[in-house]
Amino acid sequence: MAFRASVLTLYPEMFPGHLGFSLAGKAMERGQWSLDTVQIRDFATDRHRTVDDTPAGGGAGMVLKADVLARAIDSASENDTRPRLLMSPRGQPLTQERVRELAASDGVIIVCGRFEGVDQRVIEARGLEEVSIGDYVLSGGEPAALTVLDAIVRILPGVMGNDLSGLHESFEGGLLEHPHYTRPQEWEGREIPAILTSGNHGAIEKWRHQEAVQLTQERRPDLLEKG
């Protein structure tokens, strides 16, 4: 069964965006995954198609209404067991482990927040999993949703030309990825490390692992602590 993504958004024209190109775009053309969008505003009931209101208790900004968003979610997920994600800066950080779990499912439903936030009641009532792609705030959830889908689609079976490519990347095995080199052998006085042209595959793998550990220690020691 092909992986099926549904995105709930106020800006469906932002999709598929870059996912319509390169590996993801070709995989979509081959039917390995599909993407549909749901316009949240279509589920507003007043003549102005209102989707937001002022925060209860006062404060700046506007809040996405629970009733409108719930109707949109229900329309996209009737008799549907796909995970429901809400892109949110207060969510759990996205990890490669979670990406692999999502890629192993039938698909995903992603809600793109806007304004000051989303009414907490719909988050609880519809079982939305809040997910963050980093410690910063975007103007909306759409770029984050594209990022999540990019991470998922690229590791779907058959999407990458060599499925082993995904096994030696950053965050796989709890380490950052080792350095890469390719021809020419010498460039601006810098040589490819001799070990990589030695033909000794055991020594090469050992060198790559050592380099990955060193990079992780320098840049992301927290990953080693988790391990």
From TrEMBL:
<dbReference type="InterPro" id="IPR016009">
    <property type="entry name" value="tRNA_MeTrfase_TRMD/TRM10"/>
</dbReference>
<dbReference type="InterPro" id="IPR002649">
    <property type="entry name" value="tRNA_m1G_MeTrfase_TrmD"/>
</dbReference>
<dbReference type="GO" id="GO:0052906">
    <property type="term" value="F:tRNA (guanine(37)-N1)-methyltransferase activity"/>
</dbReference>
<feature type="binding site">
    <location>
        <position position="113"/>
    </location>
    <ligand>
        <name>S-adenosyl-L-methionine</name>
    </ligand>
</feature>
<comment type="function">
    <text>Specifically methylates guanosine-37 in various tRNAs.</text>
</comment>
<dbReference type="GO" id="GO:0032259">
    <property type="term" value="P:methylation"/>
</dbReference>
<keyword id="KW-0963">Cytoplasm</keyword>
<feature type="domain" description="tRNA methyltransferase TRMD/TRM10-type">
    <location>
        <begin position="4"/>
        <end position="226"/>
    </location>
</feature>
<dbReference type="InterPro" id="IPR023148">
    <property type="entry name" value="tRNA_m1G_MeTrfase_C_sf"/>
</dbReference>
<comment type="subunit">
    <text>Homodimer.</text>
</comment>
<protein>
    <recommendedName>
        <fullName>tRNA (guanine-N(1)-)-methyltransferase</fullName>
        <ecNumber>2.1.1.228</ecNumber>
    </recommendedName>
</protein>
<feature type="binding site">
    <location>
        <begin position="133"/>
        <end position="138"/>
    </location>
    <ligand>
        <name>S-adenosyl-L-methionine</name>
    </ligand>
</feature>
<comment type="similarity">
    <text>Belongs to the RNA methyltransferase TrmD family.</text>
</comment>
<dbReference type="InterPro" id="IPR029026">
    <property type="entry name" value="tRNA_m1G_MTases_N"/>
</dbReference>
<keyword id="KW-0819">tRNA processing</keyword>
<dbReference type="InterPro" id="IPR029028">
    <property type="entry name" value="Alpha/beta_knot_MTases"/>
</dbReference>
<keyword id="KW-0949">S-adenosyl-L-methionine</keyword>
<keyword id="KW-0489">Methyltransferase</keyword>
<dbReference type="Pfam" id="PF01746">
    <property type="entry name" value="tRNA_m1G_MT"/>
</dbReference>
<keyword id="KW-0808">Transferase</keyword>
